[in-house]
# Entry
Amino acid sequence: MKRLNQIWPNVSKVSTIKYFLILIGTGAYIFAKGQDAMFTHHMFNRAMVNPGYAGSSELMEISMLNRNQWWGWSGVSPRYTNGTVTLPFNLFGMSHGAGIAFNNDKFGVNNDIGAKLIYAFQRKIAISEGTLGIGISAGINSSTFDGAALNGGNDPLVPSQKLTGMTIFDMGIGVYYKTEKIYFGLSSTHLLTGTRDYKLSSGLDVLPLRPQYYAMAGYAYQLPNPMLTVVPSFLVQSDGKMTSLSFNTNLVYNNRIWGGVSYNMGTAVSALFGLELIPGIKFGLSYDYDTSILHRASNGSVEVFVLYGFKLKKEKIPQKYKSLRYL
# Structure
């Protein structure tokens, strides 16, 4: 059996205990990679997993989110980055939403890249004063495996060259309902399933891409103090084999500053903080403490996001700025 530092050159700095924990964690990651990453700031990342969200806020929104997972895994800590741009528009007297999204997931020498277009039809529901969005997304996903960065010796199962995985066409659907106080959504991504195969004589088949299923909801509860709002939310994610659940509660002050906690069932407890730097620009930061055995080998996970939202048409009569979080 090859030593770990033959596969990951920078891992020699890791202690013996971390050695075994990283092996366990890596195996779990590869097994679960059919399931997309779950973000602590999922409440700010709705368009990425539910195309029905596009245009529902009636603002053009530009977001960027970055997650550094399991700090302390020298050279192999997963890093996830995604970004979205969504905007509302009217056509033929009806409301619509459109957008683009991209993601870049890197784990060790494996690098996954995806991009997609988003469209949603938005319909006002008069009886509830809400909006229902029905959306679809279409795009591509691809992977590369940088075997040149490894020291695999003569092992035929450890490629020594940079390999490009098969590009897969991707599609997703979603429904999203919101009022001024609640939101609820159901969606699915990666409906065109497949595997990103690396063309090796050994027949190595790496990282299947399985359909993802999501359920999300949130509620803004106004406290007796009009400056304070409590916002609980949750996200359920499943690929049919594994299910992840994330629960979050934030306390929002004056629609400008918030702090809260999240619990990702069985894996992490998180602390969140964010603020609206200037009208329309929100910034957030979170720290995850691993509750699994992996906490002995990592220094937790850190996530940061920036969200900019603005109206495409200026209001004739100035109105009080509305929070981007709940609409």
